[in-house]
Amino acid sequence: MDDRARAELKGTTLRVYWVLLRHGERGIGPREVMRELGLSSPSVAAYHIEKLRGMGLVEKTEEGSYAPAKNVSVEILSDFVRFMGMMIPRYFFYSVLFTTMLLTYIAIYPIRLDSQTLVTLVFGLTACLIFWVETLRALRRRPF
Q1: Predicted confidence (pLDDT) at residue 144 exceeds the cutoff of 70
Q2: Phi and psi of 90, rounded to 5°?
Q3: So what's the pLDDT on residue 73?
Q4: Pairing, β 66-68 against β 80-83
Q5: 86 Ramachandran zone, left/alpha/beta (phi>0; psi -120 to 50)
Q6: Which of 81, 89, 76, 78 is nearest to 24 (CA)?
């Protein structure tokens, strides 16, 4: 994505793109975008959709709706993964993995006050904490 597109992908245009990403390949029309974002009219939504089309981020579907273009890299969304119709922070999966590993360790092995158990718990808790903090930071940076 070039510098011009990077500079233009902010504010309402970014929020419109986010809605289009959430709806995925099936697409969505300007009227539905207007309703989801509470915009004043469908023409405002259409303006931002056309702006996104000009950047190469959105394509018009055969049904007349608009969907995100395939294989486009957008830096601001690089922290998110589309999963089951939702945009989820990439760190969420690592957070769940490390938390599950730590809880499994605690459930399987008895807690003793020896150095091996304490080091394992400190490393596990540190990894969980770091990934959950990064997950929450990504959630706060999303467009809405």
Answers
A1: no
A2: -55, -35
A3: 64
A4: unpaired
A5: beta
A6: 81
Amino acid in position 114: D
Give the model's pLDDT for residue 118. 92
In terms of CATH architecture, what is 3-77?
Answer: Orthogonal Bundle (1.10)
Whole-structure pTM value:
0.63
- Residues 6+ away with beta carbon under 8 Å from 130: none
d(C-alpha 45, C-alpha 68), whole Å: 15
Which residue in this structure is represented by tokens 């990077």? 6
Strands 66-68 and 58-60: antiparallel
Residue-range domain boundaries for the chain: 3-77, 80-141
DSSP, res 113: S
Q: What is the mean pLDDT of the chain?
A: 84
